[in-house]
Design goal:
This is Uridine 5'-monophosphate synthase. About 40% of the residues lie in helices and about 20% in strands. It is an alpha/beta fold. It has two domains: about 200 residues, Rossmann fold; about 260 residues, Alpha-Beta Barrel (TIM Barrel), CATH 3.20.20.70. The strands form three sheets. Strands 9-10-11-12-13-14-15-16 form an eight-stranded parallel β-barrel, surrounded by seven helices. The longest helix is centred in the last third of the chain and has 21 residues. It is elongated and about 80 Å long. The structure holds 5-bromo-uridine-5'-monophosphate. 5-bromo-uridine-5'-monophosphate binds next to strand 16 and helix 17.
């Protein structure tokens, strides 16, 4: 038998006082489970409770989590959270379980103020639903929550689920290791262990729908105090293209779109290969390409698939619905057949969106594999878009949310986090081009103006080393996003 580390000892104690049980249990969700974890019996067992709280606190410190307050998830983790707070003299807050109205601050007991950092303490993580419910209440009061410390991870996908909501879970032990300890200590048989593991592997869990809906509502009503992570935004979005784009942004750690305003197809293809690894979108003005043919499109599409980026034709449709439908789907370019993203001005009214959407539907396919950005404000000097224009753009984006994925804008049009904001007029070195273009830096666009994606043209295409320069822009823009998250 292995020597008893404090954690082993704790697992063994938990088995003894039936905080870990084996049998046939019907869970809240109605499914049968061969294992049941519940640390409530620990409430009147001060020794293991003290040990657990010490180990949890060590975990908080070892994980380098910055915090001002500790919050236990009601009810079962309240004892351990209190124990940590009393022993370590940390301020504690609690969330009332009965009150569902996130708008009222009485939901949280204990002194706190917006901006305070809170670490969550939980006993067991299954799907992560209880943790998320607590996180929602805390975030809606302006508290900053990024980490949770848990005793046992049931390994049913809860840790992954939480990542999508911007929460990193640090567990003391996972259930499979706990099972190994119990076999070593001859408390359960090898067969019990392997059967339990088979059941765990076959039963991954999702966050409870009701809580996902509450989270969605909370975000949509803008009661969260800051822009969410791309992961969370992907979960929030209802448009598949937005989800794919946000997921790609996280995967490539890039929020960079390159504007390739070159006039020969070979130049474009070569540049695409150079900058492909650093970008998530390649933006074109297809009407400036002198030697356009569909073979070029096939080649570009192959590069986009291989290097994983989306294609955006910056066509800025602006005519009546009937005309834009033809301009989008027909003619020499047949834009709708290859461009994942297009954009439109709303000067002619929402018929432009009706027309564009109908053109994709006519292709006999769902229009949701294509997305449209509304031009809400422009980077060019003295442009005629007044202050009410972005507001109208937002109004129509909501009505056409199955097709509109966001905005081209110089600042955020709306706090509605379903929509992406992409900002052109970005350059590291210069402030303008002598023809009315006005530039800001990636830090300004992402950090101060709330852009999700920066669009960079000549800053990259005109550089001596486009590949290296694209990486530099990617790094600056992504760092600005990471920085924004930590504010
Ligand atoms: P630049 O080389 O980084 O200046 O290129 C910017 C690109 O973005 C270029 O293709 C413009 O057509 C496009 N653009 C813009 O600069 N400003 C706007 O407000 C809009 C588009 Br909308």
């Amino acid at each position: 038998m292995s020597s008893a580390t404090p954690l082993r000892q704790l697992v063994s104690d938990c088995y003894e006082f039936k905080a870990i049980k084996f049998g046939d249990f019907v869970l809240k969700t109605g499914i049968h489970s061969p294992i049941y974890l519940d640390i409530r019996p620990m409430v009147n067992r001060p020794k293991p409770l003290k040990l657990l709280s010490e180990l949890m606190y060590e975990k908080i410190i070892a994980s380098g989590i910055g915090y001002d307050l500790i919050c236990g998830v009601p009810y079962s983790a309240l004892s351990v959270a209190s124990s940590i707070c009393v022993q370590k003299e940390v301020n504690m807050i609690t969330k009332r379980k009965e009150n569902k109205d996130y708008g009222t601050k009485q939901l949280i007991e204990g002194q706190h103020k917006p901006g305070d950092r809170v670490v969550i303490v939980e006993d067991i993580i299954s799907s992560g639903s209880s943790i998320l419910e607590t996180v929602l209440a805390l975030r809606s009061a302006g508290l900053v929550v990024t980490d949770a410390v848990v005793f046992i991870d049931r390994q049913q996908n809860g840790v992954n689920n939480m990542l999508e909501y911007g929460i990193t879970v640090h567990s003391l032990i996972d259930v499979k290791t706990a099972l190994e300890y119990l076999v070593d200590d001859q408390k359960i048989s090898e067969q019990q262990r392997s059967e339990t593991i088979a059941w765990i592997n076959a039963n991954p869990l999702r966050i409870n729908d009701e809580i996902v809906n509450e989270w969605r509502l909370l975000c949509l009503e803008n009661r969260t105090t800051k822009l969410l992570s791309y992961e969370e935004r992907s979960r929030l979005s209802t448009h598949p293209l937005t989800q794919q784009l946000l997921d790609l942004m996280v995967k490539k750690r890039s929020n960079l779109c390159v504007a390739v305003d070159l006039i020969r197809s070979q130049q474009i293809l070569e540049l695409a290969k150079e900058v492909g690894p650093a970008i998530v979108i390649l933006k074109l003005h297809i009407d400036i390409v002198e030697d356009f043919d569909h073979q070029f499109i096939e080649q570009l599409t192959a590069i986009a698939e291989e290097m994983k980026f989306f294609i955006f034709e910056d066509r800025k449709f602006a005519d009546i619905g009937q005309t834009v439908a033809l301009q989008y789907g027909k003619g020499v370019h047949r834009i709708s057949s290859w461009s994942h993203i297009v954009n439109a001005h709303l000067v002619s009214g929402p018929g432009v969106l009706e027309g564009l959407r109908s053109a994709v539907q006519q292709d006999g396919d769902s229009h949701q594999h294509r997305g449209c950005l509304l031009v809400a404000s422009m980077s060019s000097k003295d442009n005629l878009m007044n202050a009410s224009y972005p507001k109208s753009a937002y109004k129509w984006s909501q009505k056409y949310a199955d097709f509109v994925i966001g905005f081209i804008s110089q600042s955020r049009v709306s706090a509605d986090q379903r929509f992406l904001h992409m900002t052109p007029g970005v350059h590291i070195d210069v402030s303008g081009d002598g023809l009315g273009q006005q530039y800001v830096t990636p830090e300004e666009a992402i950090g101060k103006r709330g852009a999700d994606v920066v669009i960079v043209g000549r800053g990259i295409t005109g550089a001596a080393d486009p590949r290296g320069t694209a990486h530099l822009y990617r790094q600056k823009a992504y760092e600005a996003y990471v920085q924004r998250l930590s504010l």
